[in-house]
Write a structure and sequence with these properties.
5-stranded antiparallel β-sheet, 9 strands, alpha+beta, single chain, 115 residues
């Protein structure tokens, strides 16, 4: 019985550690920028999910930029823990673009860029 209980405790601890690791494995801290992506149709989306931080809420700036030209679109929005925010904008098709998420604090978030 003692070995079974010990085994259960170890398994539970390992399961919790695995869940924590999976939650923050793709998380970034602070400002993030994607690599360049060729945009066929001109529609691009940058998004992030606020995971953890020192505050309950943060101000996030979502930008879609065209390589070597400038900003295609920008959105500044407040975000709370576990909330996902996105910004979709249209620009000229057949151009290279990248996404950028700016957070002033060292908050953890999970950003993505689709073009």
């Amino acid at each position: 019985m003692k070995n079974i209980l010990k085994s259960l405790v170890v398994t539970s601890v390992l399961a919790v550690l695995l869940m924590i690791t999976m939650t923050t494995a793709n998380a970034y801290q602070g400002t993030w920028q994607s690599g360049d992506s060729f945009d066929l149709n001109g529609v691009s989306t940058v998004e992030t999910t606020y995971i953890t931080g020192g505050n309950d809420a943060e101000t996030v700036k979502l930008l879609v930029k065209m390589t070597s030209v400038g900003t295609v679109g920008v959105k500044e929005v407040g975000v709370k823990v576990d909330q996902r925010v996105e910004h979709t904008c249209w620009g000229l098709p057949l151009k290279y673009r990248y996404g950028r998420v700016e957070i002033k604090s060292s908050a953890h978030h999970n950003p993505k860029f689709n073009s």
